[in-house]
Design goal:
Elements: H1 2-11, H2 13-31, E1 38-47, H3 64-75, H4 78-88, H5 100-109, E2 111-115, E3 127-134, H6 137-194, H7 200-253, H8 261-282, H9 295-331, H10 337-375, E4 381-386, H11 399-424, H12 431-437, H13 452-486
Antiparallel strand pairs: 1-3, 1-4, 2-3
Amino acid sequence: MLSWALHLLRKRRWWILTPLCVVPLITIAVVLRLPDEYTSSATFALIQQQVSKQYVDQMTTGSSAEMIRAVTREVLSVPRLSGIVDSFGLYQGERGKLTSEQLGEKLRESIAVAPVDQVNPRADYTAFRLSYTAENARLSQQVLGQLASLFIEINLKERGSQAQTTTSFLKSQLDAAKQRLDAQEKLVLNAKMNTADQSPAVHQAKLGVMSDLRMQLQSATNGVSRVNQQRAQIEGNLNAQLVRLQRERAALLTQYTAKHPEIIKKDKEMESIQAVVTAIRNKGPVPPSAGFSDLMLQQSVTQLESLQAEGDRLEKDAEMLRNELNRYQNGMLAASPVRAHELESVQKDYDLLKQEYSDLQLKYFRAQMSANLEEEQSGQNFRLVDPPTLPAFPSGPKRLKISLMSIAGGLALGLLLAFVAEMRNQTFLREVDMRKAFEGALVIGIPVLTTPNEEGARVRKRIFEMALACIMLVAVGAAEYYIFLHG
């Protein structure tokens, strides 16, 4: 087998050498005419919510990768990319041949989004790299800058829209629950009136008193709700001020140590605000306003003290009115087992609706705080870690790689052509081939007789072939070296 391979290489050397040299030279001539490509890249990081989840719920419940993919689909939609094509005047030579949608598709093929900190294809990630390839370095940076702005803008818009949609939905559910609760309250009142066993005059008098008590109770309840909303608003403002102080402290830590007076001052202010926030959430006593140096914090604490006093007074009034109303209602109950069972069933439904309304009210208040957090851009959002780069060198085409692959392709083509030519040749050039083809003993001798002129011509032919082969190989080597230097 080895002798046959050496025989094939020696006999079909030009079948192998010609594609080995011609294919790379043609390939190099073609790739040198290809235009340069420049790739600009930018890195984004997904910054988590700045305010603790203990105080404000996170609006997005999906993974970071799902959030990034959703924003990517929105930014890389064909209509948006078509607008970028028009604004930057891209693909001028193809505008008459392709539609606006096709130009947008072509731009999307030049954009790549790849995760940065992903361990495996199914793992979550919080950072990604955005890149764009164009024939001009400055243009690639400008287009990528526009795409980066769209990523940040679409993310903020989507999260703000989601927060508003959630708040609106909970508000509609809260209103519907309030209507059902009012209707059920009327049923409870009617059931209690039907179980009363008193004269019409007494009924009317008690009903009048109960009506007044309900109006006063409603007024006190509304006052308590108003006080709670104001306390929640003050809490939101304090949380925002706490986030601002945390950012300022983080900025100071880049320049000073933790024992620097400015940082110690920030820590004291943060501890004061945290103490007030904790008092609000636990409905405990608010620290005295005189103990705070910040004027705005003193005002907030003073306002909280007045709100707490007013809220305590209203809650006491509401409790007193509620007990008085229950006393009147219990006094009107009759001993009828059927009506008592009916009242118990209606009362149970009322209690369930009341609990449902309270739960929805709590969810609505927390959704409002989440929406305020998104408006202040303190929620989960994108941050441009590395701005779009201005490429100094072309990123493609990979001329050296293509030319080296063409050498391998030329060698494979030459070997294939040499093998096919050898298989189609039916002549016998070796004694072993004759013995395989014919049975029996063969005695054949054909001496090679050459004249001195023929022998000289053969030597000159070999020298010419060697020189030509060297020239071709040197040409390929020089072309590869040129590609290595300038490709």
